[in-house]
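Students often ask why we bother encoding 3D structure as a string. The short answer is that it lets us treat folding as translation between two languages. Here is a chain of 218 residues written in the first language.
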Amino acid sequence: MTLKPQSTAEMLAGSLRKMINNGSLPDGSRLVERDLASQFAVSRVPMREAIRLLEQEGMVDIFRNRGAVVRTLSVEDIAEIYELRALLEGEAIFNSVQNMDTETLARAELTHTLLGNAEDADRQGEHNREFHGLLYRGCQNKRLLAMIDELRNQIERYEHFQRRLLSDTQAFQHEHELILNACREGNAEAARQETFRHIESAGRVLKEFISKGMSAQK
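And here it is in the second language, the structure alphabet:
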């Protein structure tokens, strides 16, 4: 299948998304259309469209008098996102296990190993996203996968802190191993349950971290 080429607005949205996720554009930052268009050497029209795309993804808020700002997620927002992720990702892997081939499983196992050996948070994040993507892609539901990606995009900048918290423990890898074992056995229901627990656990760690940060600022 031929992939549709990205529009200028989609490419700009991707660049802005990376800047938000790596902290270059922190929570609450104003996205000044004119300044960003100049920075990327484009006209204001595709930049305006790019900002609208990020608004649709839930990463940006647009206010009448303030313009566009990077959305700040509350603890309640994070709880809702992880609750949805647990349900959707559990469903994705349940359907995927029934279609999973040995090549996909082997690639997931390799990525699991690379994740365990990764020494920095950014590389951990890349391998973690690839690991889950490999295990979900066999679900044969493009809309479900798109919804999962959108939720992950909303939370990715906060997961950077979560990975720091988990980097010195074996819990993260152990949960992945349980998911892999269920996939190896072809046990779709076990894979769903382990994935649900894994996402739920990750959300709990992040909520506690964000809550402590908010308390410290008061």
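Translate back mentally: DSSP finds nine helices and three strands in the chain. Keep this in mind for the problem set.
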